Structure formats: structure tokens, C-alpha cells
Amino acid sequence: MTSSFSLEGYVYLQGASRRRDARLEYAEHEGVLWVRVFSQGEDEEELARSPLPDVQIDTALGRTARKLTFSDGTVFETPDHEGFSKLDAHTHGARLHR
């Protein structure tokens, strides 16, 4: 079964000094769970992508924004805790959060 969803939030690119509006998409492709980050606005572009197991997921801390960090240093941040918990549930506790 293929599942997919998206989250609204912000992206911080490695070496950049400002955040950008972004959308994170989660989808299964050929049995691998992938997350991809797109900029929002007129010039929508893919900014990062990775298999879910290769992305660092920050531990939840109260109501603070949740973060995913990609291996290239790109960070996606969202205040959508409910949506993020759907993403986090797909790790099945198979890896440690860093």
C-alpha cells in the first residue's frame, strides 16, 4: 500500500541566513519511504530529498517546532505536531532519534 502526505513549514538551507516557506512531502516509492522538501511560491523547486531512515528526526520537546535534518545540512521545521507524528510513526522505532 502506498501512502503519502505533506506538511507545511519552513526550510533552512545550509549556509543561508533566512528561512523559506516550504512543504515536506512523504511518499513510498518502490518500497522505500522518501521525504522531499519543496520551496513554496512562484518558483517551487525541490530543495532536499532523502530516504526517511537517512534523515535525522529531532526529539519532541513540548510544543516546540519539530525538525528533520538532511545529510546535506538542510533543515525542515514545522509546528504541525499531529502531522509530524504521522511521519515519525513510519520509523517504527527502528532507529534512535538524535
Plain-language structure description:
It is built from 1 helix and 7 strands, in the order E-E-E-E-E-E-E-H. A 7-stranded antiparallel beta sheet has the order 4-3-2-1-7-6-5, with helices on one face. The C terminus is likely disordered. A hairpin with an 8-residue loop joins strand 5 and strand 6. It is mostly beta strands and 98 residues long.
Strand content: 35-45%
Got a strand count? Answer: 7
Helices, by number, come to 1
Specify the helix fraction band. Answer: under 10%
The largest β sheet comes out as: 7 strands, antiparallel
Shape: globular
Biggest sheet, strands in spatial order? 4-3-2-1-7-6-5
Radius of gyration: 13 Å
End-to-end gap: 29 Å
Structural class comes to mainly beta
Average of the residue pLDDT scores:
85
Sequence stretches where pLDDT stays below 50 over 5 or more residues: 93-98
The topology string of helices and strands comes to: EEEEEEEH
